[in-house]
Amino acid sequence: MERATDVPGSQAEQAVPARANDYDSFAGAYSAETGNNLVNAYYARPAMLELAGDVAGRRILDVGCGSGPLSAALRDRGADVAGVDTSAAMLALARRRLGEDAELHLAEVGDRLPFGDDAFDGVVASLVLHYLEDWGPALAELRRVLRPGGRLIASVDHPFVAYTIQEPRPDYFATTSYTFDWAFDGQFFPMRFWRRPLHAMTDAFTAAGFDIAAVSEPRPDPAARELFPEGFRDLSAKAAFLFFVVEVPVTAADPDGG
Fold it and tell me: What pTM was computed for the model?
């Protein structure tokens, strides 16, 4: 699920409200806020699309698809796209965007997905994994639905940024939660993410059976320079998100293994 601008709220490890990360409660406001803003429309999504490359004719799963902007962009580039999300309200917005025949499913990341083995050529997970304390079950399931040679493209909060915004500083080498509020239309919504060190991220991918093809720290789309001059300069000079491209190995025993 893509994210909006953070608003400083409660600090890491404080008690988290029962309905933290409740996208159903602010789906419409979130979709409107992130539709054409700097962080999402001119940074996170363009970076995901560039890493995805040529998707024409490929079967792609959008994990945490939200209201469907990334799914729509992939479909516009010729991909056959399916989407899953944990929020029914977000999926309703995605169906409105993508059409009634869109393949959309309500599912928890980490639970068994409603797809067969080797069903997809690619998976995109934009700003999703940092909602999870344990990446293992989710990555194992995404590995299952990817064919040999398939790629997972994932973005998360940059672990160095998530570390430096917390006071007092947590143990960098530990997996720790941090909480804050998002603000929409004068209302505040509690969020909870999980930060882990970089090596724990790469270890999780390899433990799930992926090969790491790329680790990327992209800059915003140059088109944002005129639209958001101050924000563009700021975002161009600091880390915000971290992007991974990981692949399912192809072996001689696989049909495509040669």
Answer: 0.91
